[in-house]
Amino acid sequence: MARFPYYRSLSAKAKRIYDVSDGVHAVTLPKLAVHRQHAAALRRALSSQDRRVVAQAAQALVSGITLALGVRSVKVRVLAKRPKNHDGELHGLYTLESDGRAHIEVWMRTAEHEKVVAFRTFLRTLLHEVCHHLDFALLGLAETFHTEGFFRRESSLVRQVSPPPSPAAPRARARQLSLFEA
Questions:
Q1: pTM of the model
Q2: CA distances from 163 to 85, 110, 121, 125, 157 (A)
Q3: What SS3 class is residue 75?
Q4: Are 78 and 58 in contact (CB under 8 A)?
Q5: What is the C-alpha to C-alpha distance for residues 72 and 74, in angstroms, rounded to an integer?
Q6: Number of neighbouring beta carbons within 10 Å of residue 118
Q7: What is the pLDDT of residues 44-69, one digit of tens each?
Q8: Terminal alpha carbon distance of the chain
Q9: Torsion over CA of 6, 9, 13 and 19, rounded to 10 degrees?
Q10: Can you tell me the distance from the alpha carbon of 24 to that of 20, in angstroms, rounded to the nearest whole number?
């Protein structure tokens, strides 16, 4: 696999960690139906636009994943409006405290227009931060890097927990126009 450009600036120890991370392409979850139910509840919670309801649903999904994988839990905080600076908007943040406690912060509204983010965007952001947690708690890595393997693990989680799309309202069939009808 191609390495990201920052690889060259890493220490030898960090390169070894990077290479281990890059070599793991998926996280396999047991009990997919349960995780999909949690993700569907998260979709409904985002529709409610109630931060507390979204936080409960996000915590349920993340707790279900960590329990299923047999790793320590992580506290999820859902905050309102994304912080913004000259580099752009922050979508999520994983923090591992010195005492081993971990927490994830995700924002449910855009910085510019304060609109609730799309479900898939929120889900991918949440699971991205979960992947940082799993780098430490499941893979036993000393650091967490954005590697191609990391992003593949994130995608594998998104695919596994994503509920089926909401059924769209049936569309009326367009009437074919004819040159010969009056």
A1: 0.86
A2: 33, 23, 14, 16, 12
A3: strand
A4: yes
A5: 7
A6: 12
A7: 999 999 999 999 999 999 999 999 99
A8: 63
A9: 30
A10: 7
